[in-house]
Design a protein that fits this description.
This protein is mostly helical. The protein has six helices and no strands. Helix 1 (about 5-15) packs across helix 6 (about 90-100).
Length: about 100
């Protein structure tokens, strides 16, 4: 199911315990700093689930990195770490909501 950025913004705000007030929440799907706020509140167990879900949002196969040897991505771990650190705010929001069990 695809959610709009506005739907994601509201769901993340609610998951963070914020009251639902139109346009008063951070723009989570576009703001990495806002994402850092909810990431800091994850439990250790949630962090493991979040990382797995976030990593799943990035392709790590050779199909998507055909020039991996030239770029230095010559092992799976490097590609996975790069996928995590380069995740967009929207990808982080979706992984967070899935971790919290709020979206499928």
């Amino acid at each position: 199911m695809n959610f709009t950025d506005e739907e994601i913004r509201i769901k993340v705000a609610e998951a963070c315990g914020e009251e639902t007030v139109f346009n008063l929440h951070p723009n989570y799907p576009e703001d990495l700093n806002a994402c850092a706020e909810f990431e800091a509140k994850l439990t250790d167990e949630e962090k493991a689930s979040y990382v797995m879900r976030l990593n799943a949002s990035h392709p790590t196969s050779d199909i998507f990195y055909p020039d991996q040897s030239e770029r230095g991505f010559n092992n799976k771990l490097a590609r996975e770490v790069f996928g995590l650190v380069s995740a967009t705010a929207r990808q982080r929001c979706v992984a967070y909501l899935k971790t919290k069990g709020l979206i499928p």
